[in-house]
Write a structure and sequence with these properties.
mainly alpha
């Protein structure tokens, strides 16, 4: 059996899974942030550490990309994938940071529900990347991520409508609209990552 003269670098797949595991940890930590809100400063610091870890993993993948001649799939798709994963963690960390900076004293049920959706999406992303090597059987993962994004959109629209309808303090409306928007952006970022995975699979399956 003849071996390829220049084998593809397979280590990328393990690094993607490591990145996805960090993203999922950040999502679960955001749920803890809203669930144990009296500990928000401490948990917010944990999210900053996870954001830094995500940056470190992205840089490691980027350095490996520069040093690798034959990649497992297109370089632009590798860049897009790590950038979208970065976006998710950045937005999760920004949600917590904004709640602290705005001196929000109590989370809402809507925020908790949005954080739960992000976690569910990140579980699907981790599973998709764990199975990416074969480029097969991944469609259920991105379909579920899209379904969850639709749920998140409905929750966000209703939440913003309720803010303006219930006669809340103007400052509270502004604060919570910003937080809801960030949570929705994180949900959208998960969908963007799923779109990249779908594109990769369509090209290589």
């Amino acid at each position: 059996m003849r071996l390829p003269l220049i084998p593809r670098e397979e280590r990328f797949y393990d690094m993607f899974v490591e990145d996805a595991a960090n993203v999922l940890t950040a999502a679960r930590t955001l749920e803890s942030f809203f669930g144990s809100y009296q500990d928000r400063e401490r948990i917010g610091a944990q999210l900053r550490e996870l954001e830094h870890r995500g940056d470190q993993i992205s840089h490691e993948i980027g350095h490996k990309l520069e040093a690798t001649f034959v990649t497992p799939f297109d370089r632009e798709d590798i860049h897009a994938l790590i950038n979208r994963m970065d976006d998710i963690v950045d937005l999760i960390e920004e949600v917590a940071d904004t709640c602290i900076l705005y001196h929000i004293t109590e989370p809402t049920d809507v925020a908790r529900r949005q954080a739960e959706i992000i976690t569910k999406q990140c579980i699907q992303l981790r599973e998709a990347l764990a199975h990416l090597r074969g480029f097969r059987g991944l469609e259920p993962f991105w379909i579920e991520i899209h379904r969850l994004e639709n749920d998140g959109d409905q929750i966000a629209r209703q939440a913003v409508a309720d803010l303006f309808r219930d006669g809340k303090d103007v400052l509270d409306v502004i604060k919570w609209k910003d937080v809801y928007d960030l949570l929705e952006n994180a949900i959208d970022a998960c969908e963007d990552a799923a779109d990249v995975i779908e594109r990769i699979v369509v090209k290589h399956a």
